[in-house]
Each structure stands twice: as C-alpha cells, then as structure tokens.
Design a protein that fits this description.
three-stranded antiparallel β-sheet; 241 residues; Rossmann fold; alpha/beta
Length: 241
C-alpha cells in the first residue's frame, strides 16, 4: 500500500481531474479555506500532495510559503513538472515528518486512510502537530467508513470491490474508475479513530463538516449531487493546534 502511487503515477492525475468525488473534495477544501479568510501571507503545508493539485491552489492563493509532501517519489516527480518556483516539494512519510515548520496551515486530502495501523495513524497526527504553530489549523479530507457494501459510489468515480477485516482497521480494495480502472487499497478508519489520534497529538479542537458539492451543471445536475450528498465519499475534518 505504501508505494502504490509510484505505480499509479500519471493515471492518478487523470482520476483527479475527472472524478466527481475529487471535484467535491476540492470544492469543500476551497470553501473551508475561504471560511478561514484565505491563505494569503500564511506558511502552508500540503500533505499527501500527489501531483500537486492542492499545493498549487495554496500557492496561487497567496501563501507566503508552500511545501508539498508525499511519500511517493513518482508523485513528487509529477508535481515538479509544473511551474514550482513558489513551491517546495519533499519526499517524506507523513508519520515521520522532518521539522520543516512552523506552519500556519496544513492540508491533507486522503492521507490518513493510508495509515496501515494505529501506531502510524497517531504518528501522522503527531508529526503534523509538531510542524504547526500554536493556533495553526489542519484541514483534512477523510474517507467515510461504513458505506460498503450498502452504497455504490461508481457514479462518482470510485468503486469498492472488497473489504478484508484485518489488523487495526479493515482493508478496503477499491478502483478509481478511469479507463481502464486503477486498483488501489486503503484502510477503513472510523472518524472516532481520527479524532482520538488528533487529541492525543495535542490538537485542542476537532470538528467535522459534510463534504460540499459544486454547483450543478449540464454534466452533473442537482439530482446527481443530491444522490452524492445522501452518502458522500468524504468529510472535512478541522483540527486546531
């Protein structure tokens, strides 16, 4: 699981730009950043940055410093193919982050569901907290638990094909529905597991919001997004240091 994105590579970029759940994730993150007053003048850290989509959003928003971190060397290579003059990219495990801060804001989209065990999950939150200033924020998009096998997320760009109860959290086998589909895996942690890890790491507050959806258009009408909101793929977790 650790290096699956080295293999997925450019195929992940395709999913990020076409999947409806990714559009909802981005819309949710941008709304949360706007609610905080934007990022202008802030030092920002983007974890599980992938090919740098959200990292570039932070830089374009006027962040004073922007650092993108991913465990995948291939993802960082792809991120660096863009104009990165205002962005630093680092290959690192979020559970073992070097001291790079302090930062005012950290973002993490689909990071914590890749923690293989409870120790690693807690280590991720501790590493992030150690890189934030007092009062700094963590905005995390996390995958929701409990949908499989009751809900079909295929219309929104991802399909869960199996669930293996093992270890500290069940292993979910999934596909990103590009052409052809991309196989990947992640852990089905509960929101309570994330909250426990955040509090243990020293975050003072933890709050949750449902994912927001983009405005309806000809391709994805209101009925389409209503179906998504009934059981969304992700939620927004906000933690304050």
């Amino acid at each position: 699981m650790r290096f699956q994105y080295d293999t997925i590579g450019e195929r992940f970029v395709e999913s990020k730009t076409t999947a409806a759940f990714s559009a909802a994730d981005t819309h949710t993150l941008l709304g949360a950043l706007d609610a905080l007053g934007g990022v202008r003048g802030l030092d920002t850290l983007d974890l599980a940055c992938g090919h740098g989509h959200n990292t570039r959003l932070l830089a374009r928003g006027g962040a004073r410093r922007t650092v993108g971190v991913d465990i995948s060397e291939e993802m960082i290579r792809l991120a660096r193919t863009h104009d990165t003059a205002a962005i630093e990219y680092v290959v690192a495990d979020a559970a073992e982050l070097p001291q790079m801060g302090p930062f005012d804001l950290a973002t993490a989209v689909h990071l914590f569901n890749h923690a293989p065990d409870r120790y690693s999950l807690h280590a991720m939150f501790r590493s992030i907290r150690a890189n934030l200033r007092a009062g700094g924020r963590l905005l995390a998009i996390v995958l929701n638990a409990g949908a499989y096998p009751h809900v079909d997320w295929s219309p929104y760009g991802v399909r869960i094909v199996g669930r293996v109860p093992e270890g500290d959290a069940p292993l979910l086998k999934a596909q990103l529905l590009t052409e052809p589909a991309i196989d990947f895996e992640y852990r089905e942690w509960a929101h309570s597991d994330f909250a426990e890890a955040a509090v243990e790491a020293g975050f003072g507050t933890v709050a949750w919001q449902p994912n927001r959806t983009p405005p309806a258009d000809a391709a994805r009408d209101e009925a389409y997004w209503t179906g998504y909101r009934a059981w969304p793929i992700s939620s927004l977790m906000t933690c304050t240091a």
